[in-house]
Specification:
Blueprint lengths: L1 H5 L3 E4 L3 E5 L5 E6 L2 E4 L4 E4 L3 H18 L6 E4 L4 E5 L2 E2 L2 E8 L2 H7 L6 E11 L8 E2 L1 H6 L5 H23 L3 E15 L2 E7 L7 E5 L9 H4 L5 H12 L6 H8 L1
Antiparallel strand pairs: 1-2, 2-3, 3-7, 4-5, 6-7, 8-12, 9-10, 9-12, 10-11, 12-13, 12-14
């Protein structure tokens, strides 16, 4: 792994992924790591095979969203841990869509976890690790120029559309989409500016609960020391019908 990664120019390394210069102008290679972090990088660990599973899960969901007309940065999966993506100018806002109370919303407002919200709620957070990704309003976003009102409208519209589609898709495999995080970027195409979905969609940034048992099938198992983290990610991939062969063997080989 190190030899192959070192031959290419590293553009960016985040907590769960590495971006390399792509083979063509305007492209990047996104590499999925097994590293896991929580509580703004305070808790760190490794989830064996996570990168392989998230690569496949994110590919599957990005392709499905593309089929219903949601523009995404995804181009194609290259191998077990990498995918080719379009290079975009990332908007420094994390968009969180909530359907059921969990995580910080439960703590912030004192509402019991598991309470179904009267309607989906969209929240914005400023992407700034050193500040702990603070929650911001649309007024902050437009005032500081992180996105203009038209872009923000497009982001809201896309986020709610993605939520509607993914909620139905996950319900079909026995999972509740409790909440999830999205990131968007700007892409110029023939002098036209487009807002497109970026980053990833996986159990790293989605809360997924089993419909019957309410068992958590996502990174909360790591955050809350619930155990069987790898198994939860594998179960999501199995239910989607995309469980890669020999995940554990591949992950051990790369370690």
């Amino acid at each position: 792994m190190n030899f192959r990664m070192s031959r290419r120019r590293r553009v960016y390394e985040g907590k769960a992924k590495v971006l390399f210069e792509g083979p063509e102008p305007g492209t990047l290679v996104q590499y999925f790591k097994d590293d896991a972090t929580a509580f703004n990088n305070v808790k760190k660990g490794t989830i064996t095979g996570k990168g392989v599973l998230n690569n496949r899960i994110s590919e599957y969901l990005m392709v499905k969203l593309g089929e219903i007309g949601v523009p995404t940065h995804f181009m194609k999966r290259l191998n077990m841990r990498e995918q080719l993506i379009r290079k975009v100018d990332i908007i420094p806002i994390e968009v969180v869509v909530r359907n059921i109370v969990a995580g910080s919303l439960a703590k912030r407002l004192g509402i019991p976890e598991g309470t179904v919200l009267p309607r989906s709620i969209v929240e914005f957070y400023y992407k700034k690790d050193e500040l702990g990704d603070p929650m911001v309003s649309d007024e902050h976003i437009t005032a500081f120029g992180w996105a203009n009102p038209h872009e923000l409208d497009e982001i809201m519209s896309l986020s709610l559309r993605i939520n509607d589609y993914l909620s139905g898709l996950f319900l079909g495999i026995g999972l509740k989409l409790v909440d999830f995080k999205l990131e968007f970027g700007r892409l110029w195409d023939n002098d036209e500016l487009h807002i497109i979905l970026a980053d990833e969609i996986s159990p790293d940034n989605c809360r997924l609960w089993d419909v019957k048992t309410n068992d958590k099938m996502d990174k909360d198992r790591f955050r809350q020391d619930l155990g069987k983290v790898e198994e939860a990610y594998q179960e999501v991939a199995k239910r989607l019908g995309i469980m890669p062969e020999n995940v554990t063997a591949e992950a051990n080989e790369k370690a």
